[in-house]
């Protein structure tokens, strides 16, 4: 086979090139001027976590999962015995999608059109990071990874397989845990996230 100019690239270099191409592409400009929030962590990595989209804090800092949801995630990872540098973390949408209400910005749930627009980039990102297992945090991530709607409440902690052979474990989104009104249920959901992350790390490694 003919060698391409990129055949000698390391995965980290390939990801850098993908991100540069992605940020320069027309389809990829955020509608609001929000900065692009790229994935972070080890490349390649056997374990990948996929979120939904950056929130206020992530948008301000340009890093995934650094706000309130990120604190929940960090605590769950710590309790599951996983170091954040043992994995790769990214989002389905690389920009914060919101509507304005007065001076506030309110999170909008991504549509299938939004997910589909980002999907080619996400698939290339996955191919480069090359995870054995991807934890889908919430239903938007699961939709992007599995091309179908699933009920996370029923499917969390189960191991599903993608067409490319990579495993997907659906888990609660940390923001869903934060929004749980009942304290006992909130604790239960948090413990389930810890359990699902621990299982995912065991299997990936
Ligand atoms: N929620 C997400 O899905 N991703 C983030 O990066 C932060 C909050």
UniProtKB/TrEMBL annotation:
GO process annotations (BP): DNA repair
Assigned keywords, A-Z: 4Fe-4S, DNA damage, DNA repair, Hydrolase, Iron, Iron-sulfur, Metal-binding, Nucleotidyltransferase, Transferase
Highest taxon in the source lineage: Bacteria
Any one Gene Ontology molecular-function term assigned to this protein's record: 4 iron, 4 sulfur cluster binding
Signal peptide region: none
Domain Uracil-DNA glycosylase-like: 38-198
UniProt family annotation: Belongs to the uracil-DNA glycosylase (UDG) superfamily. Type 4 (UDGa) family.
Protein's name in the database: Type-4 uracil-DNA glycosylase
Chain's gene name: dpo
Shown part of the complete sequence: 37 to 241 of 243
């Amino acid at each position: 086979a003919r060698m391409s100019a990129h055949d000698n690239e390391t995965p980290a270099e390939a990801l850098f090139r993908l991100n540069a191409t992605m940020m320069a592409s027309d389809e990829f400009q955020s509608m609001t001027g929000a900065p692009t929030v790229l994935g972070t962590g080890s490349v390649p990595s056997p374990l990948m976590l996929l979120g939904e989209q950056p929130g206020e804090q992530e948008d301000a800092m340009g890093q995934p999962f650094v706000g309130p949801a990120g604190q929940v995630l960090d605590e769950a990872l710590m309790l599951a015995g996983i170091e954040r540098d043992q994995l790769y973390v990214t989002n389905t949408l690389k920009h914060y999608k919101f509507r304005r209400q007065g001076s506030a910005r309110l999170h909008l749930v991504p549509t299938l059109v939004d997910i589909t627009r980002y999907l080619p980039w996400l698939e290339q990102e996955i191919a480069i990071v090359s995870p054995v297992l991807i934890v889908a945090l919430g239903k938007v991530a699961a939709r992007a990874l599995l091309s179908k709607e699933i009920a996370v409440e029923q499917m969390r902690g189960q191991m599903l397989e993608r067409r490319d052979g990579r495993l997907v474990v659906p888990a609660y989104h940390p923001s869903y845990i934060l929004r749980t009104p009942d304290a006992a249920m909130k604790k239960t959901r948090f413990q389930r996230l810890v359990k699902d992350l621990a299982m995912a790390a065991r299997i990936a490694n």
